[in-house]
Design brief:
Layout (H helix, E strand, L loop, with lengths): L10 E4 L3 H13 L5 E5 L2 H8 L15 E4 L8 H10 L8 E5 L4 H9 L4 E4 L4 H18 L18 E3 L19
Parallel strand pairs: 1-2, 1-3, 3-4, 4-5
Antiparallel strand pairs: 2-6
Helix pairs in contact: 1-5, 2-3
């Protein structure tokens, strides 16, 4: 007898640009691609989230099904976050997709050298950006089957930002200010 286990497929979005956060959330929500998207605004917050530290100490156990990671961020950049994730036995199986504006070959090489699962250059055009994020979401949150221990977070979390994918564009309220930009 085969019993199908329904996996909650949560995404961790690590992005310091509020406009890119809103666009990414809208693209994912449009196709109901994640039960919850957790948003953090820099690499230090991403690591706190993954390691259950600081304001994320009480978050539900489990890891996101994928990390969408910007590269150029304050505090800890995307490459350093990737290196830490891929060096940790408890985290290294989490797929990491870099979603960045950098087309520089050295960046691309370094990310792949350290185990990134995909490197996507953010399109400048709004429609292209939405399409790129939707395609990422379709693959990582709908098509790809994560290892059994990934993707089983419960939402909402205490002290963090959980954005349900059912929210309509414009209804997202990101309450945590970004320390470097004063947002």
């Amino acid at each position: 007898m085969h019993t199908e286990m329904r996996t909650i497929k949560n995404i961790l979005l690590v992005e310091d640009d509020q406009n890119d956060v809103e666009l990414t959330l809208a693209a994912l929500a449009e196709h109901h691609l994640a039960n919850t998207v957790f948003v953090v605004h820099d690499g230090a917050e991403a690591l706190d989230y993954l390691y259950h530290r600081g304001k994320f100490i009480a978050r539900a156990s489990g890891n996101p099904v994928v990390v969408l990671l910007d590269n150029k961020m304050p505090k800890v950049n995307g490459l350093e976050v990737l290196k830490i994730i891929k060096a940790d036995e408890q985290l290294k199986m989490i797929p990491v997709v870099v979603l960045t504006s950098s087309r520089e070959a050295p960046d691309l090489i370094e990310f792949y050298r350290h185990g990134v699962n995909a490197y996507v250059v953010k399109p400048v055009d709004f429609a292209e950006f939405m399409k790129a994020v939707q395609q990422l979401g379709i693959f990582w949150a709908a098509v790809n089957e994560p290892p059994p221990e990934l993707g089983r977070e419960a939402a909402p979390i205490q002290g963090g930002e959980a954005i349900a994918s059912g929210n309509k564009k414009g209804n997202h309220e990101i309450s945590t200010p970004h320390p470097a930009s004063g947002r």
